[in-house]
Amino acid sequence: MLTIQRSGGVIMNRSGRMWNSGCTRTDPGTLTNMGRNSMTRLTTFKTLTIGAALAGSFGLAGAGLALAQDEPAVTPSHPGHIHAGTCGEDLDPNPIGPLNNIEPRMNEESDDENANTPQGVLTAPGVLASLSEEVEVPWEDMLATSHAINIHESDENIDVYIACGDIGGVVVEGELVVSLQPQNDFGYTGIAVLTEDGDGNVDVEVYLSEPAEASTQPEVTPTREPTPEETVVITETEEVTAGEATARATEEAGD
């Protein structure tokens, strides 16, 4: 006797009579209802499973958002001063001319919301800058004896030096450009441009290049992979209607 069996537990013989898996005779109309009920249960199962997967995804995204909000970005801000002496052990720790803090360069007065969006190579080290005008250090006195520009880690860690440059070189059209070198293995480098102002004092522009690992350029945040406990597996089961089962049984019987 030729038979065909499907996941719904239905068996059909050559004569077209149908039996369930418990060997109880079943009418074709009853089989049709059974197929419909089985398909309804499958649809419900798939809907619930997909819903669970989506809920898990939203939960992971929410957790990542909360983590990002708990760790706000810190804007670097480095104090700078003019000191007597030279960089290193000969530097007088007492500053004689305070400078404005050295911070990321931004378009502060632009109405364009994208004005401060980085462009070009996003992995390029960030550049910090400051402009200090009318610093009360006499230009002539500054060049007559040893002086240096010293950059500190922060207002809280004022005793930690990250870059320093001895003031000296050729004055070109009223400007003196000095090199800033790393201190204490921090990796910051840069230049300072000193200009004599109209009162005989000094204006100072500082440009400080961040080390690559401390760059303020935006980074791509990796997406956390779900753990095995959070992974949802979706399975599908093939179902056939009574009409499909009859057609297949008739086709195979003819073969």
Describe the structure.
By secondary structure, this protein is α+β, with helices and mostly antiparallel strands. The chain folds into two domains: 4-70 and 241-254, no CATH class; 78-106 and 123-209, no CATH class. Helices cover 24% and strands 28% of the residues. It contains three helices and twelve strands. It has helices spanning 28-70, 139-144, 242-254, and strands at residues 4-5, 10-12, 18-20, 25-26, 78-84, 95-104, 127-135, 147-152, 161-166, 175-182, 189-196, 202-209. It has an eight-stranded antiparallel beta barrel. Strands 1-2-3-4 form a four-stranded antiparallel β-sheet. Strand 11 and strand 12 (202-209) form a beta hairpin. The chain is elongated and about 110 Å long. The two termini are 13 Å apart.
Set down the secondary structure blueprint.
Elements: E1 4-5, E2 10-12, E3 18-20, E4 25-26, H1 28-70, E5 78-84, E6 95-104, E7 127-135, H2 139-144, E8 147-152, E9 161-166, E10 175-182, E11 189-196, E12 202-209, H3 242-254
Antiparallel strand pairs: 1-2, 2-3, 3-4, 5-6, 5-8, 6-7, 7-12, 8-9, 9-10, 10-11, 11-12
